Structure formats: structure tokens, C-alpha cells
Fold Aspartate-semialdehyde dehydrogenase.
Amino acid sequence: MSRGLRVAVVGATGAVGTEMVRQLEISPLPVAEFRPLASARSAGSQVQFRGQAYKVRELVPEALDGLDLAFFSAGGEVSRTFVPEAVRRGVLVIDNSSAFRLEDGVPLVVPEVNFSAAREHRGLIANPNCSTIQMVVALKPIRDRFGLKRITVATYQAVSGAGYRALQSLYRELEAALRGEEIAPEVLPVASQPVKYPIALNVIPQIDVFVEEAYTREEMKMVLETQKIFADSHIEVGATCVRVPVGIGHSEVVYVETEEELPSLEEIRAILRGGEGIVVLDDPAGAVYPTPRHVSGRREVFVGRIRKDLFRPNGLHLFVVADNLVKGAAGNAVQIAERLYAEGLLPQA
Ligand SMILES: NC(=O)c1ccc[n+]([C@@H]2O[C@H](COP(=O)([O-])OP(=O)(O)OC[C@H]3O[C@@H](n4cnc5c(N)ncnc54)[C@H](OP(=O)(O)O)[C@@H]3O)[C@@H](O)[C@H]2O)c1
């Protein structure tokens, strides 16, 4: 019997979840049943989907009964508890948290880069970290043509990457700053830790907690997830992740060293233009390059400021920008589902 998909969004009231609902609304996926789930705090509130109001239900194991597909974006703890419950019920989970990303047997998928891994799923596909996704999309065509030895990246990450509370605190802090008042930081760099720094009119060189060798967890995600997605544990990655007072849109300064010598700048631009999911905006004479404001709501990754290194024939500099809630999270997750559906790997309507 033909029918549409029965789909849940877990964390439907959050920053990523809200975008997930929007991405599903604009997706060609045939959604027959839509189920927004969150914590008891927002159970009973309403979410609009394709012109209809849906009541948010509390996430309990039974709320996952009778689904085909569940998008999780409610944090690692929630995923660790409830993803196995969903998988046990035969639901395909696409998980935005970092809980299972590095586990063997869990594909970590960016459709433009390694969609084939998704076909091997055993009920769970992990969506990579936002800053990793946009970087690997931009680097895929360079890696395919010239090989990649080393990536050195500095990020300029938007506050929405830390969730709704952080985004609201940015606006409050900016208003206080404009009134000339003292800023009382509440959320960043890490909500659960006592040390706080203002983000209004500031930058914070810490995203997530410090984990090993003085690197933060966000920086280590960029190292380990890049190696897993490219299926190459020899790629060297050095990351410095920085929060900036931007609402939406992560930017990255990326320097790579390729295995092979690079061709002319024009050829490199053409190769990047031909890369899947990439928009090249790069014309120094016309001051053309991407900024976070350009990219809001878009699924593509934007690349500009393309330069060959002045000293190394295999060195390349790029500026890479994407909407962290769309391509960095919800858009990537929905794209995975769209491709699985297109290949007949989800129940067909
Ligand atoms: N923001 C990004 O750019 C980004 C990118 C990639 C991945 N992610 C990941 O996506 C996840 C969500 O991030 P976010 O930025 O959207 O956070 P957020 O704005 O704080 O939203 C969190 C969501 O999770 C729900 N939730 C919290 N505790 C829950 C529980 N016990 N049971 C059910 N639902 C619960 C919240 O519902 P209530 O309304 O009931 O509190 C809310 O819907 C995180 O794992 C994050 O690492 C975020």
C-alpha cells in the first residue's frame, strides 16, 4: 500500500529543530504524518507545518512508535537515551548531536561528499558538526583533484550554533552595550560552566569545553570528523574555533596543503565552481566575496578569497561561509533523507 512518510522532529522547538521543520516544509519528501517532539517544558505548545498547527508532544519512548524517520536535535544526552529506542522500533534516525558520530558502523554523512556511506546504515545516520560540514564540502573538489595533506582552519562561528538561549543573550547583550550599560554574560562560552564572557562587541576563542592537549571539543570534532568523512586518518587538521557576535552563518579561514602542485588561480576557481553544493563568490576587483548575511537560508556552501600561497606551490587559502542551521545542521539532515528517498531506500509514497 502506498503512503507518505511518518516523520518526527525531536527538539522541534530548538534552534536546529525550528530550521528542521522549515527544511521539511520546503522539501519534496512526502510527509504523511508530522510529529514534533520536545521536553515536557514545551509539550502542548504549537508548531506550524505546511499550513497546519501541530501540538508538541513530550519525548517518551512510546512517542517514537509507528514512525519511518526521526530527526534528532535535542542534544547528546537525549540522543544517547532515545536514539536506541527509535532504532529498536525500526525508525531510521538522522541524529544532529555528537553522541554517535565517531562510532564504528554509524555513517557520518555529508551528501555532496560521502553519500555512499549512508546506504550502509543500520538504522542510524549521524549528521556532522556544523563547522566540519561546510569545510568538507568546500574541500571535496580540491581533494579529489590534488589530494589533501594538511588543513589549517580558523572559524568565525555564529552564536546560533550554541542554541536559542545563546542567540537571545547576544541580542540582550547588544542592547545593553548600545545603552552604555554593563554587560552581564549568561551563556557563553559554555552554558554549563561557571566562567562567562560577553559576546556582544567581542570574540571568544573557545567553543565547547577543553578536552585534550589544550584543544576544545569543537576543534577535535573538526579533526576527527573530517578524517572520518574523507575516510582518511592521515589528513592533518589543525583547528582554532572562535565565537563571533554574528547571529547566523559560520565563516572559516581555511588553508590547505595539497599532495600535488596546484594549477593557476583561474583553474582552481573553475574546479571549485564545478564542486557539488558550492557557490564561488570571488572577484577581488569588485570586492566580491561571501559574508554570513549573504548565505542565510541557503543549503549551499559559499567560497571566496581564493588565493594560492605566495611561498608554497601546494598551499591554498579560502574563505568558506555557510548557514550553520541550514547546511550545518537541518538542511544537511533533510538532504540525506531526500537522497535516501530518491534512491528508494525509504518507504515510497
Ligand atoms: N545550533 C547549531 O548550529 C547546531 C549545529 C549542528 C548540530 N547541533 C546540535 O543539535 C542539537 C540541538 O541544538 P540547538 O542549537 O537546536 O539547541 P536548542 O536551541 O537549545 O534546542 C534544544 C531542543 O532540544 C529539546 N530538548 C531539550 N531537552 C530535551 C529532553 N530531555 N527531551 C526532549 N527534548 C529536549 C528542547 O526542547 P524544549 O523546548 O522542551 O526545551 C529544544 O527543542 C545539539 O545536539 C547540538 O549540538 C546544533
User: Anything to note?
Assistant: Residues 5-128+329-342 form a domain with the Rossmann fold fold (CATH 3.40.50.720).
